Every structure is written in C-alpha cells, then in structure tokens.
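Task: encode each sequence below as structure tokens.

Item 1
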Amino acid sequence: MAEAVAAVGSTDNEKLREWLAARTAEAPVKTILGDFHWDEKGLPIDKSFIITQWQGGELKFVYPTDEFPGTAPVVWPKPNW
C-alpha cells in the first residue's frame, strides 16, 4: 500500500485501485512476497496463495482456483454494497 500511496500521492480508494490494476509484469508492485501484478478480476498472476472473498455474508476461498475442494468461483465484478 505504501508504494501505491506514494505513486498516486493520495489514499483515495479509486486512485489506488486504478494504479494497482495498471501494474504489469514489467511494472509490478514490489512486496516482501515478491513482485505482484493482477488479472482483470484482481487475482494475482503467477502467485499461489489463498485468497478469500465475502460472498453472501460468508468468507469463501476463491483462489487458487480448482486446487482444493470447496473453492468458490470469484464474484466479479463485485456488486455494490
């Protein structure tokens, strides 16, 4: 987050989301877990750790996809709250 805030000069959620979504393999976010960039759904490319998402009031495992039983399809785009 520090890299994103520094890059956009703001803590505005929309500006941060746009900057993060624009990251690529050539211009990734540098983290202690390595370089990150994401696909159009927001899933990390070439990273294999668990991601969860609130769906219908329940926390669901959505990533990695199809690697273990019980993984739910990611809801995308997310509906407005």
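Item 2
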Amino acid sequence: MKAQTWRAKIKKSCEDAGTYQPFFDPIIDSLSVILENRDKAYEQYEKTGANPVIKYTNKGGNTNPAKNPLLVVWDDLNASALTYWRELGLTPSGLKKLNEDALKPKKRSALAEALAEFG
C-alpha cells in the first residue's frame, strides 16, 4: 500500500480512537513511509519464494543456512511501526496513556441509576 493510503488510514484510526491532534501529522507521515516500505519488503519476500531460511555462501566458500534478509527487514519495520502505533494511541497501552477515559466503561448518570433501581 502507498504511504498516502496508509496516512489516511492512520489518521482515521487516530480520529476514531480520539487521539488525533494536528501536531501528530509528522509522526503519521513517518509511520506511513515505514508501512509502505514494510509492504514492499514483504511483496519482494513473496516474489522470491517466501522462504524464511536461505542458503548463504560466506567468503570462505562455505554455504550455511541464514535468515532471509527480506524477512528480517520486514520484521524490523514492523517493530518500528509498533512503536509509532503505540505513540499515536493505536494500541491498548498507547491509548491508555493518551486517553485513559477511552478504555473505561461508561458510567451511568444519576438518573439512569435511579431508573435502574425501579426496573
């Protein structure tokens, strides 16, 4: 997905969570680019056979199994993205830090409490 599409989705998610502030825009832009790059790395990983382990030949000519570098990059970008999501309040712990009231159950009004006693 392109960074612009990610940007719109992230901004909407922040708005839905009640955490969006205009000064978050540079953070949202950075996260959008990270996610676009993550998607590109995964597409390339799939195009090359989606093998988590590849054969690597070192300078000495020995061939050994190694983690697929594309999968490593994808995982690193995912970890970076998680940090940004948390800072934007798009994880439960991040939301709690930014908007603790969003996770609390809604309290009933005094009128609702009184009516509940009669019903």
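Check on item 2: Strands lie at 53-57, 63-67. The mean pLDDT is 89.
End of task.
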